[in-house]
């Protein structure tokens, strides 16, 4: 099969979150199994010179969107069996950041229109275009619109994956014709309209041939208002074409046995390197060098749905367990300030790194004993899987992909790889943190068994890529 994967970010080219990990690793796994796979991305200013030097300029076209007539360059490179295409327009993509610009709606409408207009110029005409999140949500709409007069586009099918339904791409109703270049009928018949606005995610849910989301539990949760952010009625209507597939991980890229960014390598059967990583982390972050004090880590975007209000609520209780706490991430000022303030209170026991750094994240995963992820909602979550690969035992709330990847080792449960709590309640979370620290301190053999379980679990793409293949076949 011929798959074109459209995304707004993909590792190792450009990354702000988990979507980039998926877009960077699922295509490789599909290609290894014999499918022809290409990925198409915006050519952001942030993509390094090193990658740009490997690209070939293929051609340019002009993309028409309403009254706009815009240059659109097409570059490509081939890496590990996958063709990577890059859509060039400096006005839209030479910015200080990937998203959060005043004209994101226009930038990604351009990207979607460009993907459809460039189809005849790609090496292969795809059988399926796999779109991801609101930034690529207009592709199925433009494809339907264009295929009316272009027979060769009519047999292309689309899959849309929801990575997080919270970010829907809402624009004012006046954008339909003037900015999106669509006939008003798309709005009036409700296909792209929601609560009086244009809603790009809804547009894709209504027009894609198949819809997936990134874990089976999240697929079920999306039927409820609490998780669906107002989209539950739309989800109800498209239930027949929706399924949940748990994300895999790039298990080669995230492997403590070979990772070059950590202080010492180790495997599930020989954790001596992990002890060296812990000592190096304590030294690097100014924590007391104590080998028997458990390090609890949080590596996360510091935003509401990650459950940080629970952490704030029982913060002193967590510290009273006698842990060292390491926090890495950036996001909402209230959380950034909270952790900075607490770091001053708990000198030598709390390190707050208010930044984003891939190498520091890996050093934290490898140096920590426990990993806290109390998300309010979590479509899939990759950090809990990375933590497990690196032998940091996860403590998570039972939601979305956390529910599908972390299995409780609490009293009476066999073969668990972490600690879980169900209710979104700070004291329930504190209780399992205490349990986890208790196991670490009181039963090192028991703790090592849980750690071993997580390190040897199969988080590779093999199974999930097979599930995607079934969806494409449909
Ligand atoms: C989004 C979700 C996260 C998921 C990732 C990749 O960032 O919030 O849960 O792991 O996408 O699908």
Question: What is the topology?
Answer:
Blueprint: E1 2-6, H1 18-32, E2 36-42, H2 49-52, E3 56-65, E4 68-79, E5 82-88, H3 90-93, H4 104-118, E6 128-132, H5 138-147, E7 157-162, E8 170-171, H6 175-178, H7 185-188, E9 193-194, E10 197-199, H8 200-207, E11 210-213, H9 216-221, H10 225-228, H11 232-238, E12 242-244, H12 272-284, E13 295-299, H13 308-313, H14 315-320, E14 324-328, H15 333-345, E15 350-353, H16 358-367, E16 370-373, H17 383-389, E17 393-397, H18 400-405, E18 419-421, H19 426-442, H20 444-456, H21 462-473
Bound molecules: alpha-D-glucopyranose.
Alpha-D-glucopyranose (GLC) binds near residues 19, 22 and 382.
Brief synopsis:
It is built from 21 helices and 18 strands.
List keywords for this structure.
474 residues, alpha/beta, nine-stranded mixed sheet, six-stranded parallel sheet, globular, binds alpha-D-glucopyranose
Walk me through this protein's architecture.
This protein is an alpha/beta fold and 474 residues long. Helices cover 39% and strands 19% of the residues. It contains 21 helices and 18 strands. The strands form three sheets. A nine-stranded mixed sheet has the order 3-4-5-2-1-6-7-11-12, with helices on both faces. The chain has a six-stranded parallel sheet with strand order 15-14-13-16-17-18, with helices on both faces. Strands 8-10-9 form a three-stranded antiparallel sheet. Strand 16, helix 17 and strand 17 (393-397) form a beta-alpha-beta unit. The radius of gyration is 23 Å and the shape is globular. The model has no long low-confidence stretch (mean pLDDT 97). It binds alpha-D-glucopyranose.
């Amino acid at each position: 099969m011929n798959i074109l994967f459209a995304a707004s970010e993909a590792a190792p080219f450009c990354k702000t979150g988990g979507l980039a990990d998926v877009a960077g690793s699922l295509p490789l796994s599909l290609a290894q199994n014999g499918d022809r796979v290409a990925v198409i991305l915006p050519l952001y200013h942030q993509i390094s010179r090193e990658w740009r030097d490997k690209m070939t300029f293929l051609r340019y076209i002009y993309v028409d969107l309403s009254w706009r007539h815009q240059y659109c360059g097409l570059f490509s490179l081939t890496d590990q069996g996958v063709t990577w295409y890059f859509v060039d327009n400096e006005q839209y993509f030479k910015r200080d950041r990937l998203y959060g610009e005043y004209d994101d709606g226009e930038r990604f409408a351009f990207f979607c229109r460009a993907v459809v207009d460039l189809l005849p110029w790609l090496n292969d005409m795809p059988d399926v275009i796999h779109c991801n999140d609101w930034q690529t949500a207009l592709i199925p709409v433009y494809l339907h619109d264009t295929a009316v007069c272009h027979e060769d586009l009519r047999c292309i099918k689309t899959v849309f994956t929801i990575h997080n339904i919270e970010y829907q791409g809402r624009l004012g109703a006046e954008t339909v014709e003037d900015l999106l270049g669509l006939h008003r009928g798309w709005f009036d018949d409700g296909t792209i309209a929601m609560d009086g606005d244009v809603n790009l995610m809804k547009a894709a849910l209504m027009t894609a041939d198949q819809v997936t989301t990134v874990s089976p539990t999240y697929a079920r949760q999306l039927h409820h208002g609490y998780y669906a952010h107002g989209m539950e009625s739309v989800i109800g209507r498209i239930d027949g074409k929706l399924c949940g597939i748990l994300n895999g991980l790039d298990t080669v890229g995230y492997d403590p046995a070979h990772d070059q960014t950590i202080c010492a390598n180790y495997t599930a059967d020989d954790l001596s390197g992990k002890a060296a990583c812990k000592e190096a982390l304590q030294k690097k972050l100014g924590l007391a060098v104590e080998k028997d004090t458990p390090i609890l880590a949080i590596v996360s975007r510091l935003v509401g749905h990650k459950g940080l209000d629970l952490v704030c609520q029982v913060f002193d209780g967590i510290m009273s367990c006698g842990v060292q706490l390491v926090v890495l991430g950036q996001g909402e000022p209230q959380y950034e300030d909270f952790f900075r303030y607490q770091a001053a209170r708990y000198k030598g026991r709390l390190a707050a790194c208010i930044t984003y750094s891939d190498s520091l994240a890996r050093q934290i995963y490898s140096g920590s004993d426990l990993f806290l992820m109390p998300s309010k909602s979590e479509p899939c979550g990759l950090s809990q899987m990375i933590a497990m690969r690196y032998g940091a035992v996860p403590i998570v709330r039972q939601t979305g992909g956390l529910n599908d990847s972390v299995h409780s080792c609490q009293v009476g449960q066999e073969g668990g790889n972490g600690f879980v709590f169900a209710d979104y309640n700070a004291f329930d979370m504190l209780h399992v943190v205490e349990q986890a620290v208790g196991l670490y301190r009181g039963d090192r053999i028991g703790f090592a068994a849980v750690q071993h379980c997580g390190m040897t679990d199969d988080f590779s793409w093999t199974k999930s890529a097979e599930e995607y293949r079934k969806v494409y076949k449909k």
